[in-house]
UniProtKB/TrEMBL annotation:
Topology with respect to the bilayer: Multi-pass membrane protein
Residues in coiled coil: none
Entry keyword Transmembrane: yes
UniProt cross-references to Pfam families, sorted A to Z: ELO
Top-level taxon in the UniProt lineage: Eukaryota
Gene: HOS3_1
Protein's name in the database: Histone deacetylase
Membrane-spanning intervals of the chain: 30-55, 67-91, 154-171, 177-195, 216-236, 242-264
Cell location: Membrane
Keywords, sorted A to Z: Fatty acid biosynthesis, Fatty acid metabolism, Lipid biosynthesis, Lipid metabolism, Membrane, Transferase, Transmembrane, Transmembrane helix
């Protein structure tokens, strides 16, 4: 069974022979990228305004088991991508070890810094392509939030659009660090969507801010790895796709800024609620002392 899984996740001819080309890869043009992102933003805004107009004084529309099914599907897809790219990276390390020994490169350095001239073909780029396609499924959560809460968040629109854009850049410019980024992201997303499925089916949640904490861990790991890519780029004579990496770093910085801003506001709001709850108790205590 393990050999069968390894074959279908890293040794299948479609995986080994993958190439990021117009003839083999759907959705790999700049026109498709910008049209799809624009359509996502326009559809989200239109749905939000339509529901506010038609159902302003009504309760949120029920979605039934759809959010739970979506969370379970995304958890399984994320875990499959995680397992596939992990096995594919191990296979690439095994097959090209002789090349790395010649240029004194370690597997960890390869995960952070692709050699100059690397092309987007082979096992790991197949799973990078699947990860890129999965980002479109990830955007469905925006529509769920709009329908259930009548709420449209600029951060969600920005975050989901940037995730699609960055995933495209990884493949288009064979950007370094993408293998490690996908491993980190899919491992965290497997846990996050598993937790969302757990709560969506009515099971108790142990930690209210569990998802936010997972996202902080992921963003922190990305920051550390970006520093590693920068050091290797200057110490080892260059990393492939460094121009796309610079843009990726700027976009990641923007996401980190918006998320930290949201997290701080959430924390301050929680403290205000806690202070409001304690205030009546303090007044009652003063009255008892006066009597």
């Amino acid at each position: 069974m393990i050999q069968t899984l390894r074959y279908y996740l890293s040794e299948h001819p479609s995986i080994v022979g993958f190439q990021w080309t117009h003839s083999q890869s759907w959705g790999n043009t700049w026109v498709f990228l910008f049209i799809s992102i624009a359509a996502y933003i326009i559809l989200s805004v239109f749905l939000h305004l339509l529901l506010l107009l038609l159902f302003r004084h009504r309760r949120p529309l029920p979605l039934g088991p759809i959010p739970a099914i979506h969370s379970l599907s995304m958890a399984l897809i994320s875990f499959t991508i995680f397992a596939g790219i992990l096995l594919s990276a191990a296979a690439e390390i095994r097959d090209t070890r002789w090349f790395w020994r010649r240029y004194k490169t370690t597997p960890f350095q390869w995960l952070l810094c692709f050699p100059l001239g690397t092309r987007p073909s082979g096992r790991v780029f197949f799973w990078s392509y699947i990860f890129y396609l999965s980002r479109f499924l990830h955007t469905f959560r925006t529509f769920f939030t709009i329908i259930r809460r009548r709420k449209l968040s600029f951060f969600k629109l920005f975050n989901h659009s940037i995730l699609i854009f960055m995933s495209f850049l990884w493949l288009e410019f064979t950007q370094s660090f993408q293998v490690l980024a996908i491993i980190l992201t899919t491992s965290i997303y497997s846990v996050v969507y598993g937790y969302r499925f757990w709560t969506a089916v009515g099971l108790p949640s142990k930690c209210f801010h569990f998802v936010n904490h997972c996202q902080i861990v992921l963003l922190g790991c990305n920051v550390v790895c970006h520093v590693g890519v920068l050091l290797l780029h200057f110490l080892r004579g260059g990393c492939n796709g460094i121009g796309a990496w610079v843009l990726n770093s700027v976009l990641n910085g923007a996401i980190l800024f918006f998320f930290l801003n949201f997290y701080v506001k959430l924390h301050l709001q929680k403290r205000k609620i806690g202070a409001a709850v304690k205030e009546p108790e303090t007044l009652d205590t003063v009255k008892d002392k006066d009597n």
